[in-house]
Amino acid sequence: FSWYTNKIRKHNEALQAYNQKLSNEINQRKNAEQQLNEYNKELKRSNKDLEQFAYIASHDLKEPLRMINAYTSMLKKKYSDLFDERAHEFMGYVVDGVGRMEQLINSLLDYSRVSIDGGVENLKLLNVRDIVEVVKGNLRFPITKNSATVNIENADNFPIVKANQVQMMQLLQNLISNALKFKGHRLPVINIGFSTKGDFHTFYVKDNGIGISKDNQEKIFDMLTRLHTKEEYEGTGIGLATVRKIVERHEGRIWVESVEGEGSTFFFTLPKVKSVVKPVMAAAN
Ligand code: ADP
Known about the structure:
Elements (H helix, E strand, L loop, with lengths): L1 H78 L5 H33 L5 E5 H11 L1 H6 L3 E4 L7 E5 H17 L7 E9 L2 E7 L32 H11 L4 E6 L3 E9 L14
Parallel strand pairs: 2-4
Antiparallel strand pairs: 1-3, 4-5, 5-7, 6-7
The structure holds adenosine-5'-diphosphate (ADP).
């Protein structure tokens, strides 16, 4: 009997030690979780600060840039007779630099505005087809200039989503204008469509342009990533970073499938609306 109680006691001790170990581990994990939450909060705060900074900086940079613009135009207008050939060349560089800086500042502002204006209070029920039509209208000039065809597939059945209207336009305008810009030797053909599965709609913008190599298919969504020189294709490398931010703020995902030399298809998802009421029409431009 004593042998037996001894064995039970030992067994109990072992169990107690094990319990202690387990509760220590649980406490450790709780602490780590708490720390992780703190880090997360800190990260969110510093992200917000950074975005606020980008917004204010780019907003305030516009003013001095406007001044440079105004005075260079004045110099050109009033004194260009006094310029020799080199002065004209230098002036050209100034104008070019100012133009690019303006483009960068505007893109940066668009990027930071996504978080500043993109609160849930700005969400409306929208038919994505209406947005595509407005964007097509906005891009009338480059579409005609490039003799491009833009098809909306299954147009009559396009879904209604709950989204920020300005950002949806920004998103589609970025994707469609990229599809026009990165055209190959063929006439551009762009197909826009959607499919629905589970709780999400997947929209796509498909082009027959230059395509993107496998190595670069993720990178292009990072801020300031460009695969070409400004002489080959103009741009800022902020467009797709803005697009990704918009999609993610709408609880969606974005990715690209592409074959170099054949074309690219950009896909993005948006959550299905649970109960659909009447959509608000996209404002005509
Ligand atoms: P930007 O167009 O201002 O250069 P984006 O952020 O819109 O910047 O795009 C980043 C890069 O991704 C582009 O410079 C280009 O190399 C590549 N890219 C984007 N869209 C396409 C496309 N439809 N076809 C091929 N390459 C593309």
